[in-house]
Amino acid sequence: MSEAKRARVPRRPRPGINRDNSFFWEGLKEDKLLIQRCQTCGELRHPPGPMCPHCHSLEWDTLKACGRGTIYSYVNLHHPAVPPFANPNPIGLIELEEGTRLVAGLLDIEADEVRIGQPVEVVFYREQEDDDHAIALFRVTDKSAEAA
Amino acid sequence: MSKKTLANQAAIVGIGATEFSKDSGRSEMQLAVECVTMALADAGIDPSEVDGLCTYTMDHNPEIEVHRLIGAKELTFFSRVHYGGGAACAPIHQAAMAIATGIADVVVCYRAMNERSNYRFGTGMQDTLPDPTFETAHYGWYIPHGLISPASWVAMSARRYMHETGATSEDFGRVSVASRDFAATNPAAFFYDKPITLEEHQNSRWIVDPLRLLDCCQESDGGVAIVLTSPERARDLKQKPVIVRGAAQGACDDQQMMTSYYRKEMSRLPEMGLVAKQLYQQSGITPEDIQTAVIYDHFTPFVLPQLEEFGFCDRGEAKDFVRDGHHARGGRLPINTHGGQLGEAYIHGLNGVAEAVRQVRGTSVNQVNNVEHALVTAGTGVPTSGLILGVDV
Q: Are the C-beta atoms of residues B333 and B122 closer than 8 Å to each other?
C-alpha cells in the first residue's frame, strides 16, 4: 500500500508506551501475551507498574500467558462511531486463566451474542501486515457457553 | 484528648449559579466570575474579603485570575482537586479544612465550563498523546480497543453489576425517570417541563450497551459557586447557615481512573464506602438521619451501588430500592431533587452541592419535608468525595 493511501485509512489509537509497560507491547510484536510477575513473591499484576503492591519489590520478570480466558464483563459501543472500529463494537474484560484481567476487542462474534462467561482465546492483531505494532484481541471460542 | 474532627468547623453561606445551557455565549472566565460574585451576594460578603479559592484540576479558570477580577486583596489558600467529577465535593472538603485550621476565612469553591459548546467529553479519546506519562500509558490499555469514552468505561462496570445483582436496564431507567420528574418542576433545569417515561427510557438508543442515551447525563455549559466561612460568622450573615457535618475524599486499593476492573470484586464502589465511613464517623449520624441526597449521576448505573455503600439498602438490593420508588418524589429518600445531572445540568456535580444547600435551607423548588441532613456524593468509578450538610443546631 502506498504511503499516501495508508495515510487515509483510519487507524486505531496507539497506546502510550513507557519504561513500565514496553515489555507488554514488545511481547505482542512477537505474538506473546506477557503478564508482569514479581520476582520476589511471584504475584502477577496487570496493568503493570514498577513496584509490587504485595511485597514492594522492584524486581520483576514476565510470564507468557497461555492466551485462554473467559469474558468477565463486556460492552457494545455504539456511540460515538469511530472508524476503524466496528459499530457496534464489542469489547470484553477478559479474565485470563492465569488470573489477571485485561480489556480487549472481541472478534468473530455479533454484539448481541456476547455473554459473560464465554471462553476466549487471544489473537495477535496487526492493522497492516507489515505493522511494527500489534494488539491482543480475543476470539470467542464457544458462543453457547454462559456463566452460571 | 478528644479526637480532632472536621465536623461543624465550617458552614456554607452562599450559593450562585449561571443559567445552564448548551452554549453559554461567553467565556468560561466570565461564567466563573458571574457565579462567584452571585454566591458572594447570596452570602452578603464583599468580594474583597475572599481569601481562599478551590476548584477542580479540570477547570480552566485560574484561581489568581478569578481573585483578580473580583477585586479581592489577599489570597492565602488556593487548591485544586483531580479526577473530574470525583472532585465534586472535594473543594468543599478543602475549604472546610482551611477554615477549620485558620488558614482562610472566606473560601469560594467554583466550577465553570463551556463543556458542551467547547469540548464535549462524550466524543471520547481518539488520539494518543506522544508523551508517555502515566496517564497516557493508562489510557493505552483501553483506547486501542475502542473503549474511548467515559460512558464506555462505566458500562463495563455496569454490566458486571447487572450480572452479579440482577439489576436491569429498567432499574437504571427508574433512576433516570425520577430525576427527569424533578427536573420537570425545576425552572433552572435544562429539562424543565420535560419529564420522561420508563418506556421512553427503554426506547432510547444505545450509547454503550448496557447504557442507553437516557442513562447518560447531559453535556452542559454553566458555572456554580459555593461560599464557606466559619459557623460563628455564618450566624451573622444573610442566609440560614448550612453546616458541614462531614466532608471526605476516598480512593481504595487497586484504584484506577474510571477503570477499576482488576479488583477481586468489581461491582462494588469501595472508594465510596470509604467516603461513607468517614462521613458517618465525622457527623455521628446514620442513614436513617438523612432525609434527601444528591447521588452523583453522570451515568445511572453507578447510582445503585452508591445507595448500597451508604447503607440505604443492602448489597445488591438497590434495584429493589428503586423498584419501590424510594428514590423518587415522595419516597423514603428522594434523590437528585434538582433533576440531577441527567435533568438539571452537568457541572461536574457542584450544582448538586448547591441543591443540598437549598434542601437544608428549606428553599428547594422540590423541597423535601423536615430536612435536617442532606448527603452529597461525587463522581464514581474514579477517586471520589462526599459531604453531609446539616441544619445549625
A: no
